[in-house]
Amino acid sequence: MMKAFIVYCHPSEDSFTRNVRDAFIKGITDSGNEYVLSDLYKDHFKTDMTEEEYLRDAYYRNTPEVAEDVLAEQAKINASDAIVFIYPVFWSEAPAKLVGWFDRVWSYGFAYGEKTMKTLEKGLILCSAGNPLERLEQTGILDSMKKVMLVDRLSDRVRQAEFIVFENTSRENELREKNWEKYLRIAYKKGKEYF
Ligand SMILES: Cc1cc2nc3c(=O)[nH]c(=O)nc-3n(C[C@H](O)[C@H](O)[C@H](O)COP(=O)(O)O)c2cc1C
Asked: Ligand 1 pocket, 14 CB below 6 A?
């Protein structure tokens, strides 16, 4: 049995992204595998670094000890086989809360330096974007989002990774409703065939 660590970051249950999360989870459990979830807004995960945390990471120090809430996230990673990020695109990035999660959880001595982070089998990003993919491609924004997540944040911390965007999901776009079921089937299938 394999385990996926799902890092979910959306402020509202009334969202397409929340449905993507649930479809993916159903796929994972239907395949007989397991998951562990961090729901960053619901958990009120703290995403601003303290000065001590900044100095620790910036000076490549192992002291002070990593905070309990960060250790809990790191333990979830090291107890999993794969990591999955599910979020909406906000201002051409992941929500600030997820960006801040990386600031704290990818700490010195865990994600870089003398790494204690396990190399995960897989990484997956499922994100929803209000814009059409074509526009995100033309502006170079898709490429920048992918590079930041895949090349910088995941990098060789995972053996293989995939970045999936569900496009046209803003509420003013009629395609949101039209593609809804199709997208959720894709999310379900990704979960079911993940391992
Ligand atoms: C604050 C905010 C910023 C957003 N910025 C972008 C953006 O830069 N690019 C984009 O394609 N969509 C953007 N969107 C649209 C969301 O990505 C889209 O509405 C969301 O994925 C729809 O799904 P939801 O029901 O899960 O929120 C933004 C939405 C909000 C609320």
From this structure: no
User: Which atom of ligand 1 is nearest the CA belonging to 91?
Assistant: 8
Query: Using an 8 Å Cβ cutoff, are 136 and 167 in contact?
Result: yes
Q: Whose CA is nearest to atom 29 of ligand 1?
A: 90
CB 88 near ligand 1, within 6 Å: yes
pLDDT tens column, 51-109? 999 999 999 999 999 999 999 999 999 999 999 999 999 999 999 999 999 999 999 99
* CATH 3.40.50.360 for the 3-192 domain, yes or no: yes
Calpha distance 166→54 (Å, rounded): 34
Domain locations along the chain: 3-192
